[in-house]
Amino acid sequence: MLETALRIFARDGFHNADVQVIADEAGVGKGTVYRHFGNKQELFLANSAHCMQMVDAFVRNRVGDEEKAAKLIAEVGPIAVLKKIAMACAEFYQKYPETVEIMIYERAEFRGSVPAHLMFRSETRNGIDELIKAGIAAGAIRHVNVNEATNAYGDLIFGSVINGCLAGAKAKLVRRMEHAIDIFLNGLAGDQA
Amino acid sequence: MLETALRIFARDGFHNADVQVIADEAGVGKGTVYRHFGNKQELFLANSAHCMQMVDAFVRNRVGDEEKAAKLIAEVGPIAVLKKIAMACAEFYQKYPETVEIMIYERAEFRGSVPAHLMFRSETRNGIDELIKAGIAAGAIRHVNVNEATNAYGDLIFGSVINGCLAGAKAKLVRRMEHAIDIFLNGLAGDQA
Amino acid sequence: MLETALRIFARDGFHNADVQVIADEAGVGKGTVYRHFGNKQELFLANSAHCMQMVDAFVRNRVGDEEKAAKLIAEVGPIAVLKKIAMACAEFYQKYPETVEIMIYERAEFRGSVPAHLMFRSETRNGIDELIKAGIAAGAIRHVNVNEATNAYGDLIFGSVINGCLAGAKAKLVRRMEHAIDIFLNGLAGDQA
Amino acid sequence: MLETALRIFARDGFHNADVQVIADEAGVGKGTVYRHFGNKQELFLANSAHCMQMVDAFVRNRVGDEEKAAKLIAEVGPIAVLKKIAMACAEFYQKYPETVEIMIYERAEFRGSVPAHLMFRSETRNGIDELIKAGIAAGAIRHVNVNEATNAYGDLIFGSVINGCLAGAKAKLVRRMEHAIDIFLNGLAGDQA
DNA sequence: CATGAATGAGTTTTCATTCAT
DNA sequence: TATGAATGAAAACTCATTCAT
User: Fold this and answer.
1) Residue C21, CB, less than 7 Å from strand F?
2) How buried is residue C183: exposed, middle or buried, by Cβ count under 10 Å (0-12/13-18/19+)?
């Protein structure tokens, strides 16, 4: 039911999606949808939240939970971990492009009332903040404003995902992200700049 | 009339905007709106296009047209120009945050049928491509894939604008962009990375 | 349109009435109904108010406006005028039984938010109050509590109208009222009571 | 369960009452309500009938059953008994104002399919008829049309109850009825009329 | 040309009723 | 027998679009 809603919302958008269609394709009565979610908006927001949990789980699976992540950072360094996270996002969204559409509708219709993107989640932000702080302390990262660096990192990922999943470009998000994150980490400027 | 529509669409979104309200606030009859734009979608798309022309004009005014731009590049170098363009965008969107909303609705509802962002415009892309190519030739920019670098540049600007204009953060887009573009150009990684 | 609504509301009741049906039978689009009345409740309340104006006009036509009424009272006395008013009501409701149903729905659904009966209208009440006061002064009416007497008078009329217009009894309201008002004015008790 | 239904129906009206709410507040499953009453209408009608039994019992308790009533009539006379009955009604409805609302909805939605008011019950009517007949025979009551007098008596009680229980006036029904029935029995007109 | 009243297709939402457990 | 999740018919209401004035 949530999966059907996800598909329909992603395909038609919030307003053009007809709850009747969602119910039909989910093989349940319309009343059942309303019984479970209360109204169309709640149904959509439940989708939004679900999407976010999915990215979160996907990325965590790549990077590891707490201890594993700490170990990874020690092994490969914060820069490599930042790259790993970005690439995990790219993989996820390339695999589930519908979630990108949900994210956009969420921003468009509800202006971020529920965070639909990993980087809008305070927990995630804190993690990135810590990572960057540690990187700076270790000399692996330049002396940048941590908060703004996290913003920039999130903005790049967000922008790449949104623009890399426009119709026709869907299959190339991973590659797009790879180049983008490389420039972000190492800089566009040449040595003599 | 277009300005009123811009305001209403930005405030209410495409579907929630009522053509009657736009007509009323513009001080014209509803029929007049339809006479001029054909239908609601065209009205919105006209707005989208108009927004793009406004950013375009604003940035051009900052950077200069053709010859002036060439001169500027020669003077300050391609890296500085890339920064100048990004900052011009930030200034513009901070000044006219409604256009950000239009851009998002355009992406959400019409999936980019009309480019509503500077970086979605092929003409702009070509300019950036040339700029980067020249920078590489001059050694000011690393040997990156030009097309992907342009993508990354656009994605970062897009992401910063969208996320920097969420309610509450509107006044800080310029600062946000400044940090973001600095990292993008010079890299997040420290010397010993 | 109002007349059609009156008929349908009277026939089906507030909730069972379908605005679509009203629109159809009135020969207009449903949107037109909503354009004019805002919503179903307003449409109904407009009916209520209209009914009251109709009774009011009918009774005034029988009794006369201000001066004429004063003249009539002087001629036939307050008791006869009270009877005349009650009979005018009976005649009206026997002629337009649908208005009785409206009155009941108004009381049931909206608990008298708009006075739907003549006797619920403060203007009318004041008139009756004056009439009774004058009657008492002239010795034609017993020394009763004026306010309560007006209540009682209104209650009797209301009760007779409601119960006299139940299905099957519609044609007999005038006769029913005649007996009722006679008892009310002259008393049920016999001389030796 | 019936008591809960009574409360909800009185508060919300027939259509606005939600069977789910009734079931919830009664602490039973919705299915149980349907098992017992068949459908919403039957549930309401059962309430109606129950209300009538309650007034009936209340009044009978005041006046006495058959023999007692006969004795009472002999003692105080038919006029006093008519007053006693009316006052008993007033007391009852002032004490249980929800039953008034039920009565109105019954009249509005079902047009008296089940008598919800004492005076709509043929048994009661017969009793009043007898009382009046006896009163006439004894000279305590004027030579009126018995059937119409019973009508008038019922109409006055009905009107007083309905109008005396509108929001705000609930506490004053007894007083209202006292004045009304006094006028009804003794007449509004003064001696010289 | 401009207008705005009329329209009705399209959607959301509710809730009485059923029936498998 | 009691339950309450599932259902879908029914209705209110909106608003883009048209077209007569």
Assistant:
1) no
2) buried
